Automatic annotation (TrEMBL):
It comes from Chelonoidis abingdonii (Abingdon island giant tortoise). It is found in: Cell membrane; Membrane. It comes from the Eukaryota. The lineage of its organism: Eukaryota, Metazoa, Chordata, Craniata, Vertebrata. It is a multi-pass membrane protein. Residues 42-293 form the G-protein coupled receptors family 1 profile domain. Belongs to the G-protein coupled receptor 1 family. GO terms for cellular component: plasma membrane. This is Olfactory receptor.
Length: 312
């Protein structure tokens, strides 16, 4: 009888690693361990270097610190459940714990999007109005910007767990990923989820969507500025300061957009594609961002080498 399979709130959800490859999860865990190790150590190193190096106490690097802290948070949010499945075959996650993990994953995603927008605005000011750069980005302005970024994410996503708690769920409690994701949990409900879908769409468009539009607009204005005011050499030099940020934007937004499209319209695509894109979205940015900025920024590279040389 269908009514026996209904529950107002499931006690646990079952997380999923790579379906059909359970026997190889120990081997699959090796690259994941490497990714997490690189992501955690790389972002911690960025934070330590910026804190210890006086020449890096500038707005650009303060925003890079925010990005590193956000990437650390994203990696730490998914690490316990992902490695728990691969190492110990622990698939159960309590309902409230799942909602908590989901909430922080989405908060940190919105924060990362907002930090990338702040970094784009920082590059625009540095290139278009360098004489007023230090007067615009004062220490108090940067702190206020950080507080606004965090508050925006926390407040806009606060209703999501409560909207999921009000739903009635079916007997099926198997999630598609090794972590909790809002669209994934929502699909297990037997009740009307139109409110969840609508609110989720409003949040994603008003936060990440708006951020992406303004990032693109910032770069349009940057290109307009460098083309009209600078020589070819100065133009290339100015654009070179944006390369790291452009890479960070691409490796964050492309997988995020891909995952959102798959969750909404990808009912007929192989489940493995959905799983792989989700891992790319949550694990690749924390791994690549510190590498990109270390390679492209001479100041960070020199500071890292000085620190390593001093330790030796």
């Amino acid at each position: 009888n269908y009514s026996f399979n209904l529950t107002i709130k499931p006690s646990t959800f079952l997380l999923t690693g790579f379906p059909g490859l359970e026997a190889n999860h120990h081997w699959i865990s090796i690259p994941f361990c490497m990714f997490y190790l690189i992501g955690l150590s790389g972002n911690c190193l960025i934070l330590i270097i910026i804190k210890k190096t006086q020449s890096l106490h500038k707005p650009m690097y303060y925003f890079l610190s925010m990005l590193a802290m956000t990437d650390l948070g994203l990696a730490l949010c998914t690490l316990p459940t992902t490695l728990g499945i691969f190492w110990f075959k622990i698939r159960n996650i309590e309902f409230n714990a799942c909602l908590t993990q989901m909430y922080f994953i989405h908060i940190l995603s919105v924060i990362e999007s907002s930090v990338l927008l702040a970094m784009a605005f920082d590059r625009f000011i540095a290139i278009s109005n360098p004489l007023r750069y230090s007067s615009i980005w004062t220490e108090s302005t940067i702190i206020k910007t950080g507080l606004v970024i965090v508050s925006r994410a926390v407040i806009s996503l606060l209703p999501i767990p409560f909207l999921l708690k009000r739903l009635t769920y079916c007997g099926d409690n198997v999630l598609s990923h090794s972590f909790c994701f809002h669209p994934d949990i929502m699909k297990l409900a037997c009740a009307d989820i139109n409110v969840n879908i609508l609110y989720g769409l409003i949040v994603i468009l008003s936060t990440v969507g708006v951020d992406f539009v303004f990032i693109v607009l910032s770069y349009v204005l940057i290109l307009k500025t460098v083309v009209s005011l600078m020589t070819k050499e100065k133009c290339l030099k100015a654009l070179n300061t944006c390369v790291s940020h452009i890479c960070a934007v691409l490796i964050f937004f492309i997988p995020m957009i891909g995952l959102s499209v798959l969750h909404r319209y990808g009912n007929n695509v192989p489940p493995m594609l959905n799983i792989v894109v989700a891992y790319i979205y949550l694990i690749v940015p924390p791994v690549l961002n510190p590498i990109i900025y270390s390679v492209k920024s001479k100041l960070i590279r020199r500071a890292i080498l000085r620190t390593l040389w001093w330790k030796n």
